[in-house]
Every structure is written in C-alpha cells, then in structure tokens.
Amino acid sequence: MPSSKLRAQCTNGKTCSDSGDVGGHHDRDRPHIGGDLQTGLVSSPWFEYFLQMQDRVEKSPYAVGTLFDTLTDQSAAIAATSLTISTPTGLTTKLSKGLYRVSIYARITQAASTSSSLTVTLRWTDGTVACTSSGSALTGNTTATTGSMDLMIRSDADASVTYETAYSSSGATAMQYRLDVVLEQVTT
Predict the structure, then answer these.
(1) 141: left (phi over 0), alpha (psi -120 to 50) or beta
(2) CA 187 to chain centre
(3) Is-contact 113 170, C-beta < 8 A?
(4) What pairing do the DSSP bridges indicate for beta strands 146-155 and 176-187?
(5) Which of 62-71, 78-87, 108-117, 156-165 is predicted with the least confidence, judged by mean pLDDT?
(6) Contacts of 132 (CB under 8 A, 6+ apart)
(7) Alpha-carbon distance 116 to 172, whole Å?
(8) Using H for helix, E for strand and C for coil, what is the string for the chain?
C-alpha cells in the first residue's frame, strides 16, 4: 500500500494505487526495466521498493536532538549531567517517554603517575522507579585502557537521563580521560 508521504503520478494525471499503473503505459516493442523512459516514471516494483525503504528508514533508531556528548581532557569527576534535547533556539526540553539506546565509551588519555580509577554511571526513571547502571571501574592506568557500555533503557516522559563519573588518581601526574555519550530513541 503506498505511503501517504510518497506518491507517484500515473499517466492519466491521478494519484497511483498499487494496481501496477505506476510508470505509465508499456510499449510492447521496447523493454520495460525499471521505468518509462518517455515519462520518467518508475515501474510498480521500483515504486514498492522505495516505499519499503522509506518505511525501514522511518522505523530505524535515530540520534535524538543533540544528545551526543564528547568530553575531552577530563581530570576530575563529572557530576550528574542531564541529557536533554537542545532546540535550534537554544531552549532545552526533557525526553519523551520511550525506549532508548545509550552508548558510552571512555578512554584514559593520560595515565596517572601511580594509579587511577574511573567509573561511569547512568541514571534514569522507568515507571516512576529510579534506575541505575554503572560500568566496571577502569583501573588499567594506561592510555590503552578503555571501557564501554551499551544499554537499552525505557524512560518516563519528562524524566531525566543522566550520566556521571567517579574519578580517582594518585601521583604527581593526574589521570585524564575522554568520555563519549550517545542517546538514541528506538521507540516511543
């Protein structure tokens, strides 16, 4: 069934249906592979293919607003930081109710002189219940030390989804790290 967002014109000037009339008349003397060269219209199989692709794209997860944070050269704990949608005018709004995928990546960019530890925590509200998930502490204390979390969460409407870090470093040189956080809405 054709989508309301995508329509093709039939040769008679009316909106086409899925009756096979997309692409106009068929000249029996020339091959009809993919469309009508005289009118520039696509054939019914191509029309259906494009509709299916449109549906797949519309149902795919997408990054919501500007919910991608990259923090570099961090050398302290990060307090609870809310992931909000930033509008073009600079206003921020909370998230709508739905299922979200949260991806977090951390890497030590400068090792501490002696030892260090970094733990990332995510907090959200699901059905009025405060939920928390923490990654494993990064204690490798080398620039090759990394950690990541991929979570599927369900968030209440107008609730905050926050991330924070717990940080410790020993020695004259402080540990530094980079943190990437991405929030994608999967369903509403």
Answers:
(1) left
(2) 11
(3) yes
(4) unpaired
(5) 62-71
(6) 121, 122, 123
(7) 12
(8) CCCCCCCCECCCCCECCCCCCCCCCCCCCCCCCCECCCCCCECHHHHHHHHHHHHHHHHCCEEEEEEEEEEEEECCCCCCEEECEECCCCCEECCCCEEEEEEEEEEEEECCCCEEEEEEEEEEEECCEEEEEECCCECCCCCCCEEEEEEEEEECCCCCEEEEEEEEEECCCCCEEEEEEEEEEEEC
Q: Is the model's pLDDT at 130 over the cut of 90?
A: yes
d(CA 1, CA 118): 52
CATH number given to 62-187: 2.60.120
Amino acid at 49: Y
pLDDT, average across residues 111-132: 96
Q: Rounded CA gap, 119 and 124, in Å?
A: 17
pLDDT of residue 61: 65
Q: Full-prediction pTM beyond 0.85? A: no
Q: Name the residue ranges covered by the structural domains of the chain.
A: 1-60, 62-187
Q: Does residue 8 register a pLDDT over 60?
A: no
Provide the pLDDT for residue 182: 86
Tokens of 98: 């739905």
